Amino acid sequence: MNYTEKLHELTEEKFSHIPLVNVQTFGCVQNENDSEKIRGILAQSGFGISDSFENSDVVIFNTCAIRENAELKIFGNIGKLKALKAENPDMIVAVCGCMVMQPHIVAKIKKSYPFVDIVFGVNSIEELPYIVYNWYASNKRQISDPVVKTDIVEDIPVYRQSRSKATISIMYGCDNFCSYCIVPYVRGRERSRKPENILREFRQLVSEGYKDITLLGQNVDSYGKNLDPQIDFADLLSMLCKVEGDYVLHFMSSHPKDITRKVIDTIRDNPKVSRQIHLPVQSGSNRILSLMNRRYTVEQYKDIISYAKEQIPDVGFSSDIIVGFPGETYEEYLETEKLVKEMNFTQLFTFIYSKRNGTKAASLEDNVSHREKSEWLNRLIKIQQDIFFKYLESFEGKTVRALVEETKPQGYSARMANTLVVHFKTDKKDLMDSFVNLKITGKKGTVLTAELLQ
Ligand code: SAH
Ligand code: SF4
Ligand code: F3S
Question: pTM for the full model?
Answer without folding.
Answer: 0.96
